[in-house]
Amino acid sequence: MQIGFLTIDWIDILDILLVAFLLYQVYKLIQGSIANKVFFGYIFIYAVYLVAKALGMELLSAILGQFMNVGVLALLIIFQQEIRRFLMMLGRSTSIRENTILKKFYTPKVAKESITSIQSILEATKVMATSHTGALIVIEREDDLKKFIESGDIIDAEISKRLILNIFHKNTPLHDGAIIIKDGRLAAARCMLPVSESGTISPALGFRHRAAFGMSEQTDAAIIVVSEEKGEISFINHGGIFRNMSVNDLEAKLTDYLLKV
Ligand SMILES: Nc1ncnc2c1ncn2[C@@H]1O[C@H](COP(=O)(O)OP(=O)(O)OP(=O)(O)O)[C@@H](O)[C@H]1O
């Protein structure tokens, strides 16, 4: 096919479509994050570079060419988190859980143990919501939370309503940060979670919620947040946030999510 001075064959069309698809996926991945602006800046410079090259502007294309070469390295550093998220997304979508045939033969490993501890978690959540006690509870599913557990104080105790209430009680040494539940046991308290940089999170939500979002971006954990300010219960997972939940709604969501293959 001839368009003006350009000769285009079907490989070129396929090439353009694949690049467009790839760029769209990258855009979706970084949408709302700070990296978004860097991405468009980079695309703009690349477009100028291509035009300068096509017009034979040697000096400008040489300078921009050098910038593009170093830029790839810079992009790897700037987009660290997004690249990690992208690879995790790929890893997850090729895992047994996402495979409809293998799924039939597979039972989630954490489900049974975690389900038995749900009642204590729900009862404690109810009390904390009523008393406006801030809390952040992370329940491990398939993704290993070892590195987050190690960021806090190891407890490794049987879960009980009283233990949870005691940990989150204001003015106690362990109340800051998150508790992590693993295999039906309270693994650790005072855990540090990654804070999300997403620009789509409501500005009304503070760091406790941002940390829950950050965790849900990097892992498949189930996360419960009790807001200190409003006494509101939220459930967060990598599917999004469910705000202002009743304890019954939370029970249904949590059971469903923990048992989901
Ligand atoms: N990265 C983090 N990892 C774990 N816990 C965190 C992190 N950042 C903040 N927190 C917890 O959140 C508390 C601060 O919450 P902040 O008031 O900013 O959040 P919020 O989302 O507005 O919630 P609230 O409605 O309870 O005020 C801290 O005291 C700490 O316990």
From TrEMBL:
Keywords: ATP-binding, Cell membrane, Membrane, Nucleotide-binding, Nucleotidyltransferase, Transferase, Transmembrane, Transmembrane helix. Residues 80-247 form the DAC domain. One of its GO terms (molecular function) is adenylate cyclase activity. GO terms for biological process: cAMP biosynthetic process. PROSITE patterns: DAC. Gene3D superfamilies: DNA integrity scanning protein, DisA, N-terminal domain. The chain crosses the membrane at residues 6-27, 39-56, 62-79. It catalyses: 2 ATP = 3',3'-c-di-AMP + 2 diphosphate. Its EC number is 2.7.7.85. PANTHER family: DIADENYLATE CYCLASE. Probably a homodimer. Belongs to the adenylate cyclase family. DacA/CdaA subfamily. Catalyzes the condensation of 2 ATP molecules into cyclic di-AMP (c-di-AMP), a second messenger used to regulate differing processes in different bacteria. This is Diadenylate cyclase. It comes from Arcicella aurantiaca.
